[in-house]
Amino acid sequence: MKTKTLARTPDAVDAILAQWQRERPDLDASPMGPIGRIKRCAALLEQQLEAGFAPFDLCLWEFDMLAALRRSGASCRLSPTELFSTLMVTSGTMTHRLKRLESRGFIERVPNEQDARSMLVQLTDTGLALIDRAVEAHVENERRMLSALRADVLSQLDTHLSTLLLSLEERKA
C-alpha cells in the first residue's frame, strides 16, 4: 500500500495512521483519519469553549442549559423533559443540573399552566442577563476558533459535517 503525499502539514492523526501502516500494512486504517480528527478537534474545541465561559463563571453544560432556555422563546421556559431531550442527557443528570442552576439563582421552577401536575424551568432575570452576555462572548470565541478557515472552506466543512451528522442520527433511530 502506498503512502499518499500530503499537500498539508502533517498532524497528530497522520502520525497514528503512519504507525498503523507500519504495524498493520494489510489494514486500511483510513477511516481513522476523519474520525480521529473530528474527535481531536472536539476535545480541543471543548477546552477553548470552557476557557471562554470562565469569565462568566460558567462551564459548558451550564451554558448549554441556559442557552437552551434562552432560545426557547419569549418565556425562556421549558419542561424538564423538553430540556433534557434537547440537551441529550438523562433525567437523573438533568435533576442534578437543575438543582445546581437553581441554587445559583439562574433558573426557577414555575407552575405549568397547561398541566397543574408539572413544573416548568424558566430563566430568572439574573440567568437571562448572564446568558445574554455569555452568548455574545461565545459567538466571538467561536468566530476566533474558526478564523483559520476561509469562508468557502468553512461553508463546505459545515455542509459535510451536516451530512455526516444526519447519517449518524439516522443510524441511531
Largest sheet: 3 strands, antiparallel
Rg result: 21 Å
- Helix share bin: 55-70%
How many helical stretches? 7
Order of strands, widest sheet: 1-3-2
Order of helices and strands: HHHEHHEEHH
Mean pLDDT, all residues: 93
Count all strands and give the number: 3
Uncertain residue ranges: none
Q: Could you state the oligomeric state of the chains shown?
A: single chain
Strand content: 5-15%
| Overall spatial form | elongated
The computed structural class is mainly alpha
> Terminal Cα separation, in Å?
37 Å
What are the main properties of this structure?
173 residues; mainly alpha; three-stranded antiparallel β-sheet
Descriptive overview:
Helix content is 63%, strand content 7%. It starts with 11 loop residues before the first helix and ends with a helix. With 173 residues, it is mainly α. It has a three-stranded antiparallel beta sheet. The chain contains seven helices and three strands; from the N terminus they run αααβααββαα. It is elongated.
